[in-house]
Write a structure and sequence with these properties.
The complex is a heterodimer of chains A (about 400) and B (about 80). Chain A has about 400 residues and is α/β, with parallel strands linked by helices. In chain A, about 35% of the residues lie in helices and about 20% in strands. Chain B is globular, with a radius of gyration of 12 Å. Classes of the chains: A alpha/beta (about 400), B mainly alpha (about 80). Chains A and B meet through loops of A and helix 2 of B.
């Protein structure tokens, strides 16, 4: 167990395919509502039938003036709105010294993906001779971190974190470790991704791993992953500071583990996944049997689901027989660099509400996936400790643990 | 040997990671040493060469395409349909 200052969550913002604030997100998770449908932001006729999970009913002009919107790609828009929600809930004020001791550490898989796509379309598709002047600051992968820092007035250590589908988990874990170690006092951290555009979808289509029906993690008959989008941002601070402010604590961050496979580029590695899980348990000082619920990476691809099942058995041993592990990607799709934040939010909400959200869309058992995936629907049960897994293309693994407040 | 067979063999041959690049239509793709990324590139090269779209999903690939012959058959069918 690594010792240091205790770190707690006092605010969570969410923009997701199943709800654009924390309360509606949880209401959907706890009722098994699925946010997957054909794309509305890309013409489905030029795709091979992929389903997507889009953030719905998001009107940027309700949140920003025209002048504010000019330098904001959609990924930064949803990041800033989620950060505002988190800060409002935390009731924290960054105007004084605390602002200089607060970090903005935000993961994204791509950055301003719509801006990249629009710019290429302009140049190569329409033959335009120039692109929009703020193209570069809109598309940079640190844009969500920079924009959150500017809009929320946090002036401490701030940067983006890029590790594909593990980005948000690496970001939250890094912020947690920095606060625990006394390197900074608070953080706005999490992940954002907005990538439902033609270029990104065609790239994923070429990987041949996309489902054309829905996302069915760990299920027989699954056809692969469903690309999603969204943002989830957390306010983290020390337990002592939260208590001193009289802030409501939503949950405690207790562990973070990382590893690299150093093996195949796209195929997951059981050993790498298991090492990250064990590192997280060690960091938190947990025994496998202390964990009550696992939010699995659960992409719904054959490769992930089999490897993650084997890795869960390896890391948790016999204890995994009595720990439910569900994939909320079955409802929100795979939001790449935001996925880990949406899922850590689900894990914190699970311990807060004592409900394990389900793996939706399940058709029946796959012999290679034989754990308890909460396929019958949301499960009310006592949950004190939850773990959230993220594994990325390129073999970069990150795992977080949370405890009830 | 039909043109399709020869072309498919040539494309797959380039993806074989071993020094011994001998290949026959009955060979298993797995035994030839093709890994997932090689497989993806092979499908792409074949589609580009014949201007077809193979109904290939990596999640079910193991059942759909076991041997070189399976790939040849899928392409032949698509080429015939086009022709």
């Amino acid at each position: 167990m690594t010792t240091g200052r205790r770190v707690v969550v006092t605010g969570i913002g969410v923009l997701s395919p199943i709800g654009n604030d924390l309360a509606s997100y949880w209401d959907s998770l706890a009722n098994g509502r699925v946010g997957i449908a054909p794309p509305t932001r890309v013409d489905p006729d030029i795709l091979a039938g992929e389903m997507v999970a889009e953030v719905k009913d998001f009107d940027p002009s309700a949140h920003f003036t025209d002048r504010e919107l000019a330098p904001l790609d959609r990924v930064s828009q949803i990041a800033v709105v989620a950060a505002r929600q988190a800060v409002d809930q935390a009731g924290i004020d960054f105007s004084g010294d605390l602002g200089e001791r607060t970090a903005a550490i935000i993961g994204t898989g791509i950055g301003g993906s719509d801006t990249i796509d629009d710019s290429y379309h302009r140049l190569y598709g329409t033959g335009a001779k120039r692109v929009y002047p703020l193209t570069v600051p809109k598309l940079m992968p640190n844009a969500p971190a920079s924009q959150v820092s500017m809009h929320l007035g946090v002036r401490g250590p701030s940067f983006g974190i890029v590790s594909a589908c593990s980005s948000a988990t690496h970001a939250i874990g890094t912020a947690f470790h920095m606060i625990r170690a006394g390197l900074t006092d608070a953080a706005i951290t999490g992940g954002a991704e907005s990538c439902i555009n033609l270029g990104t979808l065609k790239g994923w289509e070429a990987m041949r791993v996309m489902a054309n029906d829905t996302c069915r993690p760990f299920s027989k008959g699954r056809r692969g992953l469903v690309l999603g989008e969204g943002a989830s941002l957390f306010v983290l601070e020390t337990m002592a500071a939260a208590e001193a402010r009289g802030a409501e604590v939503l949950g405690e961050v207790i562990g973070f583990g990382m590893s690299a496979d150093a093996a195949d580029l796209t195929n997951p590695d059981v050993g790498g996944m298991a090492r990250a899980m064990r590192a997280c348990l060690d960091d938190a000082g947990l025994e496998p049997g202390d964990v009550d619920y696992i939010n699995a990476h659960g992409t719904g691809t054959a490769a992930n689901d089999k490897a993650e099942t084997a890795a869960l058995k390896s890391a948790f041993g016999d204890a995994i027989g009595s720990i439910p592990a569900s994939s909320t990607k079955s409802m929100v799709g795979h939001a790449l660099g935001a996925a880990g934040a949406l899922e850590f939010a689900a894990a914190v909400l699970a311990v807060r509400n004592n409900v394990a959200p389900p793996t939706a869309n399940y058709l029946g058992p796959d012999p290679a996936c034989d754990l308890d995936y909460v396929t019958e629907g949301p499960r009310p049960m006592p949950i004190d400790v939850a773990v959230s897994n993220s594994f990325a293309f390129g073999g970069l693994n990150a795992v977080l643990a949370a405890r009830a407040a | 040997m039909t043109d399709v067979t020869a072309d498919v063999l040539a494309i797959i041959q380039k993806k074989i990671p071993k020094e011994d690049k001998s290949i026959a239509v009955g060979d298993s793709l797995e035994e030839l040493g093709l890994e997932s990324v090689d497989f993806l590139e092979m499908v792409f090269d074949v589609e580009e060469k014949f201007d077809v779209q193979i109904d290939y999903n990596a999640n079910t690939a193991a059942e759909d395409f076991k041997t070189v012959q399976d790939v040849v058959n899928a392409i032949q069918e698509l080429v015939d349909k086009k022709g």
